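Table S2 (text version). Query chain:
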Amino acid sequence: MTTTRKRALFTAHATAIGLIAMATFSPVAAAAGVDAVESVNPRFGSDHVDRGVGRPKPTPAHTSPHLPGGRFDPAVWDDSEAGDYVRSSKPYVLNFDGLKTFTVTGNGGGPRDELKTPQDARKASDEIYESLSADITFNLDDGVKLIAQQIHAGSGAGFSTQFKLYVQDSSALGIFKGEGEENFALDDYPRLEGVPSNGVFDVYARVQIPGSVSGDGEINEKIFDLGTIKSGDTIKYKFINDHGVVAVRSVVGRNKVKFTYDMADSAASYMKFGSYVQAQDAESGCNVTNDLDCEYPGWEPYGESDNVEKTEELWRQYFSDSHIGKARVTFRNLVHVGGPLQ
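Corresponding structure-token output:
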């Protein structure tokens, strides 16, 4: 099915989602463990503070402001899923584009171009201090959805990721649908712009709710809306894991957000960052290979796959048909401190 046909089918439904989702915020998604979110986003009116409910403010075990580390050290990272990412080295400027490098892994949700913590160096997230900050520029085609940074859980944790930084020009439907959750309504979606393939990209963070398990039919992540950008825009971003307590500071356009959150723990967590493109239809949120049996009016999956080669073929076909060929993420002024190898 062509992109034009899908857009025509989606227009009325997308308008309804945008109106409802921007007017509400889920009591389910507003999970416990939040310290504060401060926003000057004009979409929220005046300064907005969301203090969370039900749990005390998380307290870091201890801070580590003087750990060794510097701006960027290539030796700290596993680059097996990255291409030629170093644009310059004095200072380091890093370029990633999942649609150019197109690394396909057996358990991935789309093509990637990322660095990650080496496997033999991974530790429990509550045992380390690690921070990453950068000015991040996004040059993206309309309809792109990607993860720019994440904390991935180790095997056996019951969930795949503890934290993800998303940038997407797609419907809010894809936020939960791709993870197998089903017992939710439109009121559970966060307040995002949420119009697919219109050149406006939502920037948001997803944090695993402690005690929850992915794929159990429930919403298991807290969503933090950081603002919106257009292709070519730059955000200021800082992520800190202080022994299991996440702190995020971001400046996205006029929107300034900061929050802390008691992150779900995993025995062998690891950081990844770059351009991890999601192979999801921008309108329906359905995975291109339909591995979760997603249904949506007008959506026709590209097929099913049981091997990496077939998966890559289907993904490339979808992105080509959708005129999506650029997902470049550039990191400048990158500072990485702590982590298992520093």
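Notes on Table S2: The CA atoms of residues 125 and 240 lie 11 Å apart. The radius of gyration is 19 Å.
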